[in-house]
Specification:
Number of helices: 11
Shape: globular
CATH superfamily of the largest domain: Histidine kinase-like ATPase, C-terminal domain
Largest sheet: 5 strands, antiparallel
CATH class of the largest domain: Alpha Beta
Radius of gyration: 22 Å
Number of domains: 3
CATH architecture of the largest domain: 2-Layer Sandwich
Strand content: 15-25%
Oligomer: single chain
CATH topology of the largest domain: Heat Shock Protein 90
Helix content: 40-55%
Length: 324
């Protein structure tokens, strides 16, 4: 590992999880100088919980050059996503750290795409192992109700991670879409089915209003469904339980079909108006911070578009415009 990369830091720590070495651009990445970091607890240096710091220490000591991601909290500011490469150097646990926000700020789309693909690949293999372990445990007929509930939660989080990985992979994909004509209602229903367990857990019902005789839309359903499903889930997550998620299918200018989603709880802060559809550009972009960026990328690549209307007050409207 090396700290020679732009805005990167290398930390090493003792068995007591106190920093013994700090190199690189510490002030830019961790907002503390190298001297201030020395002897600081690992969890304080990274802005994470002590439990998470112990997990990172255990991974580092395995010396697999494993990649981990943490959400670094610095006081009252918004969390910063950090990418850590963990391992051992001279028997000492170390982490090479990059600030993902700084890495992506102003980066050309091709650089962001390559990073997205890389992150997706790095996470997919360990997640597959976790999924297999959970599925094996579920086959145990002697589980208590409490353990069954825990495994249900684990499965739900695995599905969340799988959707995040798909978003990372999709954002980094440059292949030409395979376009076919589909009824817009069918595209919506298939997207809804992908997040049906999560909607059912929250008792969220999709309420659909459809204009008559809408033309079929020309899309690559395989690539559109997951990003549309994530948008549905983003909105549903903010709704109270036993609510309705409103969707309208209607005809727009030049006869192009529109899919309009209402999010009554989300607000669009003024500082996010220009970055809403950029990677990590909005708190509304759940799903690895790429859900809205990936949605826009998919829609544009398929001859469509997506827009959002909102203000600092709750109540937003997302409009997807399709090619025919």
């Amino acid at each position: 590992m090396t700290a020679s990369l732009l805005q990167a830091v290398q930390l090493a720590w003792s068995p007591g999880l106190r920093i013994t070495r700090a190199q690189g651009d510490c002030s830019a990445v961790l907002h503390r100088s190298a001297s201030e970091l020395m002897e600081a607890p690992l969890h304080t240096a990274l802005g994470i919980t002590p439990e998470r710091a112990r997990e990172l220490d255990a991974v580092a000591r395995e010396d697999r050059r494993a990649v981990e991601f943490v959400s670094c909290r610095r006081g009252s500011t918004e969390p910063t996503p950090l990418r850590l490469v963990l391992g051992l150097e001279a028997g000492e646990p170390t982490a090479a750290i990059q600030d993902l926000d700084a890495l992506l700020e102003g980066a050309p789309p091709v650089q962001i795409s390559k990073l997205s693909s890389s992150l997706s690949h790095e996470i997919r293999n360990p997640l597959s192992s976790v999924k297999m372990a959970v599925q094996t445990l579920q086959r145990n007929t002697g589980l208590s109700d409490r353990d069954k509930r825990r495994l249900t939660i684990a499965n739900r989080e695995i599905r969340t991670m799988e959707r995040m990985l798909w978003l990372l992979s999709e954002y980094g994909r440059d292949s030409v879409p395979s376009l076919e004509h589909h009824p817009l209602r069918t595209v919506l229903q298939e997207a809804q089915a992908m997040v049906a367990p999560e909607l059912a857990e929250r008792h969220i019902e999709l309420r659909l209003e459809e204009a008559p005789e809408l033309p079929r839309v020309r899309v690559d359903g395989t690539r559109l469904r997951p990003v549309l499903a994530q948008l549905l889930l983003n909105i549903a997550t903010g709704l109270p339980e036993h609510s309705q998620l409103e969707v309208h299918l209607r005809q727009g200018p030049a006869g192009r079909p529109l899919l309009v989603l209402k999010d009554p709880t989300a607000a669009l802060p003024p500082e996010e108006r220009g970055t809403l559809f950029e990677p990590f550009g909005s708190r509304l972009a759940r799903g690895a911070g790429l859900s809205l960026a990936a949605l826009r990328r998919v829609m544009l690549n398929q001859g469509g578009d997506v827009s959002a209307e909102g203000s600092a007050e709750p109540g937003m409207v997302f409009t997807l415009t399709f090619a025919v």
